[in-house]
Structure formats: C-alpha cells, structure tokens
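Sequence in, structure out.
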Amino acid sequence: MSHYLFDSAADHAVGRFTALEARYDPVSRTTLEQTGLTTGWRCLEIGGGSASLGDWLGERVGPRGEVTVTELEPRWAASRERPDHVRLLRHDIVRDPLPGKDYDLVHARLVLLHLPERIEVLRRLVTALRPGGWLVLEEFDCGWTPVLSAPDEASAALFHRVHTALLDLLEEAGADPLWGRRVLGAMTAAGLDRLGAGTYAEAWQGGSIGISLHHHNTEQVADQLAARGVSDGELDGFRALLRRPDFIVNSYPLISARGRRPLENGKDGTP
C-alpha cells in the first residue's frame, strides 16, 4: 500500500476530510464544471476521501453516467448511501491496475502531492482517459502560508516552527509540498492540451473550520513532530493559537489544473 503521512484509516481523517470539503469543494466543483461535465459522462475520482465530490459527480452525470470513487480506506465513504451508478472501490493508485479506461473525466485532489511516484501516476491517469477526456488535478502549494494576524511575534514564530516541522515530515514521507506550482508543467509534459489552471486561497481565522486542518494534521503526527524536537508545550501552544480569533493565517493555496487528452484524429469536437 502507498505510504501517506496522514493515514486515511486514522480517526483524525474524518476531521481532515470535513475541513477540506467545507473549504475546497465549491472550488473543485467550479473547476470540474469547466470541463463541460454533463449527463452521461464516465468519471473516475481518485482518493475520494469521504466521497463528497464523487457523490456530487454522480448527481451531475445522472443514472446514464457512471462514477467510480477510489480510496485507500473507503470506510468513511461507505457509511453513506449512494445510487448504483456511483461505485466505491478500495484501490491503491500506485500498486493496483486502473479500475477502467475511456473515462470522460478523471479527477484527483491532494493525492499526487503525497506520492513519490506522482509523475508515473499522472501518466497512468492520462491513459485512463478517452481521446478528448479531461484530467483535473488539484494540489496544494504549501510554500505560501503567511501569518496575516497574530497576537504577537512569538505566536507567529511558533506557528512557523511547527508548520515547518510538519512540512519536513511530509518531504521525508516522499511528498512534495510545492507540487501545486509544478502540476501544470507536469500535465503539459504528459501531452495534454487545452490546459488551464486557477489558484484559490483565503484567510483562515482561529476557531474556523479551515484552520482546523492544521489541528487535525498536527494531532495525527504528534509523535513524529516530537521526534523532530517540537516539545509538548509548543504543540499545546500551537493548538491554543489555532483557537484564537486574533490569529489568522493564509490557507494553503489550491492550484486546480485541468487538461484534455488530445483527440486522435486532430479534430476539435469537445468543450
């Protein structure tokens, strides 16, 4: 099984999924609609978490369409009922064969960032598309998270210390925290056309659902942070800071990149 720093089977995964869905699902839906998404499409959702976007895709394509949602640990998504044309599958995109081909749309959000094999996986996803089909990859650029407001300089420094240690852990696990700024170039190199991208960021205030992502992430890897020299007192101070309304940090910028597999006959007949 592929290694992720943030285990999808852990209890904190639910809180992480909730925060991501609340703050980024509207952005993802807008990007997916820009592909021309319509009824009857066959869609593949990689690493679907609790399947909020997979279920939304099912509504958009209708019963004449088909949606396959994959996840390393699908038990969170399995707790919700869904129509027959939305299939949930336990699947490892690195190790397992692709669950199908000739998709109209393949989407992954915050998956390839974690994979050392991200370029190989990207190329495999391109092969899963029909000619004229769309690949949408949405990834964080974790290198730009400035503190926008803090009660004092020490608080801002504490956030940066703990957050930098977290990014170091991600890199050690094979992730690329700056993958968001590289993804469109990688899609270009993979031969896609009709390329486009947008970047979304917002301010996360202490106590908000967005900033809770930092809480769940650091809680899940608290032991590893301690091994890097982050003390219990620093972690307690970090968590308290995340609850303060006078602390505001920029969200992770989400780069939403899309590209189309070229048509084999060279004719341009898709959106």
